[in-house]
Design brief:
The complex is a heterodimer. By secondary structure, chain A is of the alpha/beta class. Chain A is built from seven helices and 21 strands. In chain A, strands 1, 4, 5, 7, 9, 11, 13, 14, 16, 18 and 20 form an eleven-stranded mixed sheet that branches. Chain B has a single domain, classed as P-loop containing nucleotide triphosphate hydrolases (Rossmann fold, 3-Layer(aba) Sandwich), CATH 3.40.50.300. Classes of the chains: A alpha/beta, B alpha/beta. The interface between A and B is medium-sized, with 23 and 27 residues. Bound molecules: adenosine-5'-triphosphate and magnesium ion.
């Protein structure tokens, strides 16, 4: 027990020292301008979830009240208000508030800040020092759960810091598909969301993670995600952001320790208004035979500014990975900055590659569609949707349709 | 149906057409011949109203009205459709999706037409992406068929197509243009061809040779073809039939 207490104390100390540490990327946010979220009452049935919360969930791609998912976690502001595992999946997985999990399973402390450095920046530090809540998901060994799990994190209060810390553990041979929707409730235009996520993928496990964000126009969002991958594990991460916000900065990382681990990141971004968006992913290819892809599709309109990053770092001769960034610019005021980084350390036979293209929408295609009777607006929106509609490796059909639907739903007013 | 009067067209700043005069009656199918680069595609694109083709003089009358003021989509809605020589690629947009937008839903008609043009296996691929030459031609005609235009502008439907598929395309075009119907023909076509194969299926009413920015010769399409095969296009300039 001594070890645990030392660890937790050290974590606190490191966090305190980092409380004013600016993040290397993204505009610096003064956290003092925001209030803490308040706790919420639990509900025992989806019927008791208000219409406005349900609507917010829907815009982040989560349909509450439908039994289409294997398990559901709903957090509003600072509290887990609803959790459910469908009967058929009892005993195969766990889903609960992370605070509850840490009490129930004291041994989990080893996973807490085990991947994301607590002193990475002021946001992670704040997350440790102020009350955080989030989901804990564990899929037991060899359980293969095709039906998606869904987690939804909503913020209904104005000018708050929502401070989320999630823990996901896939035991050996486990498989799951997780959808996470994060959104502010309609009318709540101002706040900040800090999301720390630590995912542990055991040997031969498989996780697809699809995250949709839908925030108010003045929101700042700082997800901090690290995934650790075991032998022969597979991870597919899809991030979708199609609504304007003030700023978003995220640079999730896969630490590929195991042999033959396979990581795939997809960022699908439509930046509008004055959005400042800095997205990407980084793959640390450590094990033999590791491979992966980091793909981004970016549309930038109005006066938005988008950084699309990708970082591939190989430590192993037999590693292979590819980076791809494609962007469409819709206006003079919009900016896309593509920043690829390929790094090889002591592994001269590894293969890393990179491909990028930024340009306007193809007028030839627009005119072609118009000649079929579509209006210019319809044509632009169809081409844009197609452009964003990338192949997502490893996801089941239901999730494919889900991503299509999210793109369709949120891009109706795309132009 | 279509009347082109003294048409001049500029593309990319270059004057490609100077003085084109051409008429296609209701229910008629005409073929447009001419050497590479004379402006055959330009003429069709201009009738369709594609941006980038600037009319410098003359007029295009469709069903009694000038269509010059109309945008490309307005012309499509009026009943003009085109099968393009080159199909663009539109990544992520399935041929099926586009087909559904053209017919306004997923209908049995769409399946039937896909069957007819051997396009079933292309429906779930992105428009034009990785299509072979022959696949692109069939996919173009598939869309045109779904549109069922009154006036079909068809740019080299059989170039690069194998014999089996020429047969398939020929029959489809004959059906689209109602060539088998005797009296009730109401759809017209203007078709560019270099090979003339398509004539076997269409029994076209008239042929036009485009050279030096104008129609230099017209007549029975089969006769024109035979002459051109024998004497070459240069003879057309001299003959003034
Ligand atoms: N966008 C453009 N910019 C500049 N020149 C163009 C453009 N489009 C066409 N042209 C030129 O206009 C002329 C006519 O081209 P067009 O495609 O109409 O010829 P065509 O008769 O259809 O030839 P082909 O039999 O080879 O298909 C050519 O010299 C071509 O290079
Ligand atoms: Mg041509």
């Amino acid at each position: 027990m001594k070890v645990k207490e030392d660890y937790l104390r050290e974590i606190k100390e490191r966090a305190e020292k980092a409380l004013n540490k600016k993040a290397p990327l993204g505009p610096d946010i003064d956290l003092n301008e925001f209030y803490l979220c308040s706790p919420q009452e639990k509900v025992n049935s989806v019927e008791n979830i208000s219409a406005s919360l349900r609507e917010a969930a829907l815009y982040a791609g989560v349909e509450l009240g439908e039994d289409k998912s294997s398990a559901t976690y709903l957090q509003v502001n600072r509290s887990a208000v609803y959790e459910k595992i469908q009967d058929a999946f009892q005993g195969k997985l766990e889903i609960m508030a992370v605070s509850e999990a840490l009490e129930k399973y004291p041994e989990l402390w080893e996973y807490w800040w085990g991947l994301v450095p607590v002193d990475a920046d002021k946001y992670t530090a704040f997350s440790e020092l102020c009350p955080a809540e989030g989901y804990f998901i564990r899929v037991f060994a060899h359980q293969k759960i095709e039906v998606p799990l869904q987690a939804c994190l909503l913020l209904s209060e104005e000018s708050r810091i929502q401070n989320v810390h999630n823990l996901v553990i896939l035991e050996e041979g486990a498989e799951a598909n997780l959808i996470t929707g994060c959104a502010s409730v309609r009318g709540n235009e101002n706040g900040i969301h800090i999301g720390v996520s630590e995912f542990y993928l055991g040997d031969n496990s498989r996780l697809t993670f699809t995250m949709v964000h839908n925030w108010g126009e003045n929101f700042h969002v700082r997800p901090r995600t690290v995934v650790k991958m075991g032998n022969n594990s597979f991870y597919s991460n899809t991030y979708v952001l199609l609504k304007p916000l003030s700023s978003l900065q995220t640079f999730p990382q896969a630490i590929m320790e195991g042999e033959n681990a396979d990581a795939n990141f997809q960022s699908i971004v439509f930046a509008k208004g004055n959005s400042y968006i800095d997205v990407g992913s980084s793959l640390l290819l450590k094990g033999k035979g590791c491979r992966g892809n980091s793909v981004s599709r970016v549309c930038a309109a109005d006066n938005s500014q988008v950084y699309a990053r990708g970082r591939l770092i190989s430590y192993n001769d037999e590693a292979q990975a590819h980076l791809e960034c494609k962007g469409i610019l819709f206006s003079k005021g919009a900016e896309i900055i593509s920043i690829p980084e390929l790094e090889v350390y002591g592994a001269p036979r590894s293969r890393l590659s990179h491909e990028a293209a930024v340009g306007p929408i193809e007028e030839e295609a627009v005119n072609y569609l118009r000649s079929r009777g579509l209006s210019r607006e319809e044509s632009l929106s169809l081409i844009t949707r197609g452009f964003l509609n990338i192949d997502i490796p490893g996801i089941p059909d239901v999730l494919r349709r889900y991503v299509d639907e999210v793109i369709r739903l949120t891009s109706r007013d795309i132009m | 149906m279509l009347e082109i009067k003294g048409l001049g067209v500029k593309v990319g700043g270059e004057e490609v057409l100077q003085d084109v005069n051409l008429e296609v009656g209701t229910g008629e199918v005409h073929v447009l011949l001419g050497p590479n680069g004379v402006g055959k595609t330009t003429l069709l694109m201009t009738i369709m109203g594609m941006p980038g083709y600037e009319v410098t003089k003359g007029d295009i009358i469709f069903q009694g009205e000038s269509i010059l003021p109309l945008s490309v989509e307005e012309r499509a809605k009026k009943g003009i459709g085109m099968a393009f020589q080159k199909m663009p690629t539109i990544p992520g947009v399935k041929l099926r999706t586009l087909g559904e937008l053209i017919v306004n839903e997923s209908s049995d008609f769409l399946k039937e037409v896909a069957e007819k043009l051997n396009c079933n296996y292309l429906l779930d691929r992105s428009v034009g992406l990785g299509f072979s030459g022959g696949e692109a031609k069939r996919a173009e005609l598939f869309q045109l068929f779904l549109q069922r235009p009154l006036l079909s502008l068809i740019d080299e439907p059989e170039s690069g197509v194998d014999l089996d598929n020429i047969n398939l395309i020929g029959k489809a075009l004959s059906e689209l243009l109602e060539r088998e119907q005797v009296r009730t023909k109401k759809r017209s076509g203007l078709i560019i061809t270099h090979t003339g194969y398509i004539l076997e299926y269409l029994n076209a009413d008239m042929g036009h040779v485009l050279m030096e920015g104008r129609i230099v010769c017209r007549g029975n399409p089969r006769d024109l073809f035979t002459d051109i095969k024998e004497k070459g296009y240069q003879e057309c300039l001299r003959c003034e039939r």
